[in-house]
Amino acid sequence: MDRKKIILGIKIFIAISLASQLGIFFYTSYQNGGISFNIPFQRISFGMLGIAFLLSWFEGPITGVRIFFLMRVINPQIKIITSIKAAYANIFMGTITPSQTGGGVAQIYFISRDKIPYSQASAGSILCFVSTLFFLITALISTALFQSPTMGHTLQLMIKSASVAVGITTLIFIVCMLFTHLINNLKLTLFTHFKSKGIIKDENGKIEDFLKRFAEGLVSCRESILLMAKRGKKALIISYLLTCLFFAVRLVIPYFIITGLGGNVSVADVMYIQLFITLVSYFSPTPGASGIAELSSVVLMASFVASPVVAIYTFLWRLCTLYINSSIGGILLYRELKTSDKA
Q1: Dihedrals phi, psi of 199, to nearest 5 degrees
Q2: Most confident of 20-29, 89-98, 168-177, 183-192
């Protein structure tokens, strides 16, 4: 793992997150007539905020148990503690890389440290992605059918559009799994044809290498799914249920924060909006969706969070859904890399 890139990702994430949090603070202060540190403590329910903080500690273990159930079908040598460490490392690397692209790499690294081949660790990571993908499609279809009287037409249209986008992605994924070899052969044949015609120039062979790696990835993904379909149906079901539990925890945390800050909201409405924010965060080009997550939260949650406490809510939301777990993952990854250097 490239430590310089990790450090750069951390710096970018902190810089954008800090700028976003300060920007929200000064903007809301301006909206309310000037900077003020008068927090309405009499309306705060520390019990509700405590529940949100407590729930934040469940994300790592839930994800770790999911990895464990999937990996033990592939390789029974996997340990539960390794799976949990891999989950936290995934969260950390997903935080400091665009579109969470580094999360899977960190997960594979930790699992392979348990003397498990990279190919098997990669298969487990792929299956975790599959569980997440199918949760998102089922959740978005459900929310697209959900009609809330408090949700505006624009927001409901956005949710339905997101459902269509994820549905198309899922359909493409299924087609790739059903016709893997045909797609790989067609892709390489077209590349060779266009290259011979001079339409595509690939003097260094980088495009060809990428296509070959992508083809190998599709084959590995297909084989992993077929293996689980044959030997691990229960593990797949458990993985999907754990994925649902993970997202349920993440989506409900803002409800307890808002209620703890004195707000009065519907848990269904909050989870409805949070699902869309989560989807936006997954595909955000900035590390950990920094900036984009905060801005989308301020815009979409404006009707639920009182203006004087928007900045506090945004910070607590990111603290409970990202900062805590990514910090744990960063510490674990640092210790693991330090141990590997001594070995």
Answers
A1: -70, -40
A2: 89-98
Q: Are 100 and 282 in contact (CB under 8 A)?
A: yes
Within 8 A by CB and 6+ apart from 275, the residues are 139, 140, 143, 159, 247, 251
Query: What six digits make up the tokens of 76?
Result: 């029974």
> DSSP of 256-280, one letter per residue?
HHHHHTT----HHHHHHHHHHHHHH
Residue 26 CA from chain centroid, whole number = 29
DSSP 44: -
Total domains in the fold of the chain: 1
Using CA atoms, how far apart are residues 200 and 220, in angstroms rounded to an integer?
Answer: 27
The C-alpha atoms of residue 240 and residue 58 are separated, in whole angstroms, by 16
How many angstroms separate the CA atoms of 184 and 200, rounded?
18
Domain contains 77: yes
Q: pLDDT tens digits for 100-120?
A: 778 888 888 888 887 888 878
Domain containing residue 64: 45-283+325-342
User: What is the crossing angle of helices 59-74 and 80-95, to 10°?
Assistant: 120
Q: Does residue 191 form part of some domain?
A: yes
Query: Residue 150 falls within a domain, yes or no?
Result: yes
Of 52-61, 66-75, 107-116, 184-193, where does the model show the most confidence?
52-61
**Nearest CA-CA partner of 249 in 320, 154, 144, 175:** 320
Residue 180: the pLDDT is: 84
What's the pLDDT tens digit per position in 284-297? 778 888 888 888 88
Question: Which two three-digit tokens encode residue 195?
Answer: 């290259």
Residue 39 falls inside a structural domain: no
Condensed to tens digits (0 to 9), the pLDDT of residues 257-269 reads 999 988 888 888 8
Instruction: Work out the pLDDT band at 196, boundaries 50, 70, 90.
Output: confident
